Amino acid sequence: MKHETLVEIGRKAEIVPLGGRVGTMTRRQRLERWAAVLEHHEGPVQPFYRIEDFSPQERRKLRGDETPITVAFADPVLREEGLAGDTIGDATAFFKLSHGQTHRLLCDCHYHGQMTGRGVAARLRGMAKGGLLHRLWVWGMARPAVA
User: Given 31, 77, 119, 134, which is the most exposed site by the fewest CB atoms within 10 A?
Assistant: First the structure.
């Protein structure tokens, strides 16, 4: 039997830590997965109400039934990747969202009419691509197309 270092073995085979493949997706892949899950979600999706009125500590603890975050947390792939719960704090940490991104993505004040899974998915895809239109939207200068 030949002794090899972990680096040498890694060149020949995929090394998977005990407990599964936690954390192998990039941020963009996580956002794209969330978008796909929301697109295929058939139930209602509810925004958070006036999240800008909460302190950062309170906002991190916010959760609700049928929010885009609970839809994400129901997905076994995102949970396996490390999504720890269905609070705003869990989502901002896992998906690496800024306060502005979280607010524009999840707060009721950015949805005229009903929030839909497809509409949130479109916003997530724009965020994943990170293009100019999305950056303008985050700063309040443009609105993304929502299905």
Answer: 77
